[in-house]
Design a protein that fits this description.
Blueprint lengths: L1 H8 L21 E9 L10 E10 L6 E7 L2 E11 L4 E8 L4 E8 L3 E10 L2 E13 L2 E10 L6 E10 L2
Antiparallel strand pairs: 1-2, 1-10, 2-3, 3-4, 4-5, 5-6, 6-7, 7-8, 8-9, 9-10
Length: 167
């Protein structure tokens, strides 16, 4: 009888934490991508500049964070860690650039679209930047980057482009 009592008195083993189901919305991005686009004329710049880059995305072991290596001109340009904040119910996106900057974004996701925002400084002035991504096929997406002065309600498109999965 004593053995029976010990089995039920033993403390429960702690459950291994599981990633938020929300993170599955980022599965679409796992792989290698080629991005290209053009800057647009706005109060933030003259526009007309073409750009392209490459991104490699993979899940960190455990599945809690998506790691992004971004390349421009064939060189590593930034490293990003994407996660999910259960308390705020938002995605987090922290980038560390080759120019020494740290960018902190927060985002939301629906079935086929993602929206990221961050506070930034351009020419010494506070701005809000917004990145909207729309899935266009299982292997591609379109994106729009907008900015607005921190005290304004008016957004300006500063860049548009596409991403295509290469593997």
């Amino acid at each position: 009888m004593l053995l029976f009592g010990l089995v039920f008195a033993a403390p429960a083993l702690p459950q291994k934490p599981q990633p938020s189901p929300e993170l599955k919305k980022q599965d679409f991005f796992v792989g290698s991508w080629r991005l290209e686009g053009t800057t647009k004329q706005s109060t933030f710049g003259p526009g007309g500049q073409k750009f392209e880059s490459r991104e490699d995305l993979e899940w960190m072991p455990g599945g809690f964070f998506l790691l992004v290596h971004s390349y421009s001109g064939g060189k590593l340009d930034s490293i990003t860690v994407i996660g999910y904040d259960l308390r705020e119910k938002v995605f987090t996106h922290t980038s560390f650039t080759s120019s020494g900057q740290t960018e902190l974004w927060k985002g939301t996701a629906d079935n086929d679209s993602w929206t990221w925002t961050r506070d930034a400084t351009v020419s010494g002035k506070s701005v809000v930047e917004r990145l909207a991504i729309k899935k266009t096929s299982p292997d591609s997406y379109a994106f729009v980057v907008e900015m607005k002065p921190g005290d304004s309600a008016t957004w300006s498109i500063v860049a548009e482009g596409t991403g295509a999965k290469t593997k």
